[in-house]
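Onboarding guide, step 5: your first structure request.
Type a short instruction followed by the sequence, for example:

Predict the 3D structure of this protein.
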Amino acid sequence: MEQLPLFHSESRKVNFTQLATFLRCPLEYKLRFIDENETAVPSGTQVLWGRLLHSIARQYLDLPIDERSLHFLTAKLEDEETSGSLPDRNYQLNIFADTMRYFHDIFAQTEVYKLELTFQAPLRDFVLRGRADAIVHGQSGLSLFEFKYGDYREFDYESEIDECLQLIFYSLGLRAIHVNVVRAAYYFFDSGKTASIVLSEPVISRGTARLLEIIDKISITNDFTPRANRLCPTCGFRKHCYLHAQRR
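The system replies with structure tokens like these:
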């Protein structure tokens, strides 16, 4: 059987979404990244609200420290022009009215180093690429924050390192452009909580090995069997999936 390519460009560029998609559902990976069918990319409630919340967070952190306020966050969130057409608007506003306070408490006095910093970094014969949400100054050095709609698993974790795998992926990319972060964290908009790790060399080493393991697995597989997961209801490829047909 002919082996399907992992990444189509000669430079073999890899982003974390590709890896997470394969681990979540190999069929979704094939349809999206091999067949290059981008017309059915998931766009459910969480995706749409996540994009809005990312935008608000970026605008807030781009302000001088003395201009940041809770009112700015809530006004942006409640703006009818930006959130009026989003699904479950009133329900979502009730959730984020409280968590915006937590966001303000954490970041009001935080000095920003860079926002949405893009990177490309070699890893063996591949190139990691991505865009870091926020890099800020901390007491012990630079810290990376990645913003998430909520604290849920994008894929089934096979080891505890999977829990922070995106943070390690991004820290490797940042190192390649001489931005050395000593700590990394997810910030979850729906709860206002964070989950952080110290980027010690053992953590980086284990994460690098795990990333290469996943890349190698994708590189040699011809098995793109669909895998049931919590994002199935919002997947844009349901009509191509026999698991969806079985549920109807």
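Each response can be followed by summary notes, for example: The longest helix spans residues 201-220.
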